[in-house]
Structures are given as C-alpha cells and as structure tokens.
Amino acid sequence: MNDYFVYTDKMTVGYDGKPLIRDIEIRLKRGQILTLIGPNGAGKSTILKSITKQLSLIGGAVYLDRELMHHMSGKEVAKKLAVVMTGRMHTELMTCEDIVSTGRYPYTGRLGILSDTDRQKVYSAMELVHALELKDKDFTAISDGQRQRVLLARAICQEPEVIVLDEPTSFLDIRHKLELLGILKNMVLEKNLAVIMSLHELDLAQKISDIVVCVHGDTIERFGTPEEIFTNEYIHTLYGMTSGSYNADFGCLEMARPQGEPQIFVIGGNGRGIPVYRKLQRQGIPFAAGVLHENDVDYAVAKFLACRVITEQSFEPIGEDALQEAKKVLAQCQKVVCCVKTFAAMNKKNEELLEEAQKRGLEVFFT
User: Fold this and answer.
1) In a domain, 1, yes or no
2) Can you state the percent helix, strand and coil of the chain, rounding each to 5?
C-alpha cells in the first residue's frame, strides 16, 4: 500500500445508499496513468466522483498519499488532487481566466486574492493547453472543446499530484484530443504526476494507459496493463459487441465483414492490401485474401474483413498446400485485385496465383 499514491480499499459506490459497484480496488503510483473503460452506464463516472469526494462512499475507503481522504480537509485534498469533470458549472459573468484562476484558491488567503506569482501560473497553464487567447472570453460563450481545455488549465495551475478526469476528450476534435493527452503524458513523465481518467475511445486508452480498469456489471471485472486487457475477445465481451470487432493489433474498431461467398480475390501483402480490404468492406462486397503470412500486417486486417483468408506460417515461403487452397477459392471469384508489384522468394507462389487468374480469363486489376 505504501508504494501507491492513490489506493482504494474495498470501496463500494452508488446513489442514495444503494450499491452500484462493490469492492473496488484501485492502486496507482505516481508517474502512471490509470484509465477506466466499460459500457455506457457501467459506473465509471460514479467511481471517479466517489474517489474525489463528490459522492459519499457506501463502503470502504480511499487513501491519498497514504492518508485517509475522509479525514482530510477540502483544502488539503485540493493541494494534492485536481478534478476535471464533464458536468456543467455555474459560471455566470466569469471569464475563462477567472475559471482557471480558481485553481489557485487552495494557496491563497481567506480573501482569495491572487499574487503576481499566482497569475503567472494561471497564464502558463492556459498557454500550455493553447487557451491563452480565450482568457477574456465569457466561459459560457465558448465551445465545449474550448471549455475542456480551460478546465484542464485550471487543474494544471492547481499544481496537484494527481489529476482525475471524466471523459476529457469527449468534445475535442482529433488535433485537440492528441494535444490534451500529450500534455497529460508529458506531465506524468516530467512532473511524476498520477492521472486517473475515464475514456470511451478504446484506441486512445490502449495507447496512453499504464493501467486499465474494466467496469462491467456491479464489479471491476479486470485490472491490468493494456497488453493484458486489450484483446479482441475480451473487448468484444466487455462491450457485448454484436456487430464488428475490435482489432487489438491496430487498436481500432473494425466494421462487420460483408456476408456471402467471395466475389473478389485480393492478392496482397506488406500492408498494400489494407486500403483495398477497407474499400471492399465499405461497398459491401465479400472478398477473399491471400496468400498472407500470419505475421503480415495485411493479415491483421484481413482476418476481420475478408470472408476467406488463405495463410502461410510466419517466416516460411508460401507452400504448395496454401497455393492450391488459394486456387480453389480463386476459381469461385469473378475478379482479382493484385496489390503486389514484385514477388520475392517468400511470396513467389502468389505470382503463380496471379498467372492462374489470368489463365482463367478473370478480370485482374492492379493497384
């Protein structure tokens, strides 16, 4: 327990005294990012609000820097922990600079007057999240994405040791999603902060997290590293997916493969087939792919989108058995798309496959 900056002991959370999730054990060291994932309504926000004392615990305890948070004053907590939540704030007549300035109040006197040093920290935080141009704007008059950046600036200028964020990327475009998460990652690495957040974007959670907590039903179903959590099978189960798949190799969602017998055979390899696979999937055309080595990047996508994939073992030249299987599938197709320009020793048999297509008089397209 002494190694962890944030630690929960059999925490039970819920509303009006009714448990929603029981026996939550979260352990987070400084210099780590912990991300909660799970279906909508699973209770991720409830867990975060309970950790930050916005909701009363139904059972168990939360420790912050080895101290029981229940015994800490609000000011003591605010000097160690900052919160960025998605709920609306009552900010009538407050500028963005005013909002960010509230992050300094744990360090001011009773009157809440900011010193020159405090104001410099406010400006530096706004500059860090690219929000300095918003400082004089009414907080209620800016976009949701801009508000998210302003709230992050407020958390940063609070100089906490742990930041808790609820869906921080929800209202941001791609550029600002990456910028925000990049800022958090740099702060974790450079300032040795701890970060707890919830994310819906599985690709981002897989790439940025040190620890992933999976909320499912009335329990924490899994707790581990991204490598342990993000498998095709488990993500499918966690979210109850009935269409499409999660591609753990690429860290992305894949649409459902077209149904039916293959109409087109794609000869690919080395990533050249992927754009063709995706185009055929968008057009709803069932296709076959091969012959692909099992360590080929094309295979990582083809196994989700193609209705048939003919493979060869990794690091082995394509053999006669794979070639004959591919020829049988090829014979059922109407067209062939060849994405390979030169055939080396490892995939020389695919050149024979192309020749077979031409002998059969199939329409062949080259990319």
Assistant:
1) no
2) 40, 25, 35
3-state secondary structure of 147: helix
Of the residues 247, 273, 299, the one at which a domain ends? 247
Bridge partners of 254, per DSSP, are 245
Residues paired with residue 81 on neighbouring β-strands, in sequence order: 162
In this prediction the pTM is: 0.88
Contacts of 363 (CB under 8 A, 6+ apart): 334, 335, 336
Q: Cα-flanking dihedrals φ and ψ of residue 299, to 5°? A: -65, -35
Helices (H), the chain: 44-51, 74-78, 96-101, 116-128, 144-157, 174-191, 202-208, 226-229, 232-238, 274-282, 297-305, 320-330, 348-359
- N-term to C-term CA, the chain: 58
Pair 279, 298: CB distance under 8 Å:
no
- Identify whether residues 330 and 216 lie together within a single domain: no
CATH of the domain at 166: 3.40.50.300
292 touches 329 (CB < 8 A): no
Does residue 364 have a cis bond before it (omega within 30 degrees)? no
Last residue of a domain, one of 247, 276, 311: 247
Report pLDDT digits (tens) over 267-291: 999 999 999 999 999 999 999 999 9
Q: Scan for tokens 């992927």, then name that residue.
A: 274
SS3 18: strand
Q: How many structural domains compose the chain?
A: 2
pLDDT of 90 > 90? The answer is: no
Structure tokens at 271: 């990533």
In which domain, by residue range, is 322 found? 255-366
Residue 367 CA to residue 360 CA, distance in Å, equals 20
pLDDT at residue 145 tops 70: yes
* 317: enclosing H helix or E strand: none
Cα–Cα distance between 330 and 290 in angstroms, integer?
10
Q: 331-356 burial, b for 16+ CB within 10 Å, e for fewer? A: eebeebbbbbeebeeebebbbebbeb
Paired sense of beta strands 6-15 and 67-68, if any: unpaired
- Identify whether residues 274 and 238 lie together within a single domain: no
